[in-house]
Amino acid sequence: MTKKVVVTRQIKDEHLNQLKEKFEVFMWDSAGEPLPREQFLEEIKDADAALTMLSETVDAEMFETAKNLKVVANLAVGYDNIDLETAKENDVTITNTPEVLTETTAELAFTLMLTSARRVIKANRELEAGDWTGWSPYHMAGTDVFGKTIGVFGMGSIGAAFARRLKGFDCKIIYHNRSESKYAADLNAELVSFDELLEQSDFVLCAAPLTDETKYKFDKSAFGKMKSEAHFINIGRGAHVVEADLKEAVETGEIAAAALDVFDGEPISKDHPFIGMDNMTLLPHIGSASVATRDNMVQLCVDNIMNVLEGKAPLTQVK
Ligand code: DGY
Predict the structure, then answer these.
(1) pTM value?
(2) b vs e for 23-44, b when ≥16 Cβ sit within 10 Å of the residue's Cβ?
């Protein structure tokens, strides 16, 4: 019997056709709207594989429904949308897309840092609103990145690619991980405690995976330990942060600014409390969104599905 693959968002023909040559494929034909949950559960019932996005909750209910399922290829390096324990119990291989998105995501982190430091969004808004009254000495004056202390929470491959970009900025790099990062020596980066990271950094980047340990790590107490000139940048997951605490920290000047690509509950609407706040740079989760990288991510998912359904080892299995 032909095996079935469920693809939960529109992908390009060049990727889709590889799957179609060998399998029956259901693809949700929208690039923007997520596949409704009910339909996902219906389609997954007789599926052997699924190519999912981080917007799908791959949980016990789904595994209970999907009796034939052998592999879920998640189009992201993060996999906090997947219940790994239940996947294991059900003998379903889970794969993600590490490495292919590392440089692109690091570039976005760097963009956020510079944008926040130099008040780029605010300056642009002022100009576009016709409110620019002319040059003056401290008009839209921001802060420098060069020579500063940069703290990376989660010195994995993305954190390291971000830190590598600081070469030439004459910065001091510190980081916090559970243990020493294999990238640290090359970067001349110093392992510090979480509190030291908060206390010493001028820019704190959150690039860690979301786990029980890192969930809501950035709360009132954490922001309270940061310098009042510090900027907080998040390219990890929204749930690393207690958003109400971050709002308060920025509003009261406990920290200088925040630059966020991720939110606790996405997408956010224009009523979200962060919208319209001064000193907040907000992006709609586009960390890995370059065309080339998204192509590579989709191809890696396709390759993982093909391998597992053809009895070979997956390329990037989540352990
Ligand atoms: C990831 O890969 O986990 C990103 O957040 C999606 O681009």
Answers:
(1) 0.96
(2) bebbbbeeeeeebeeeebeebb
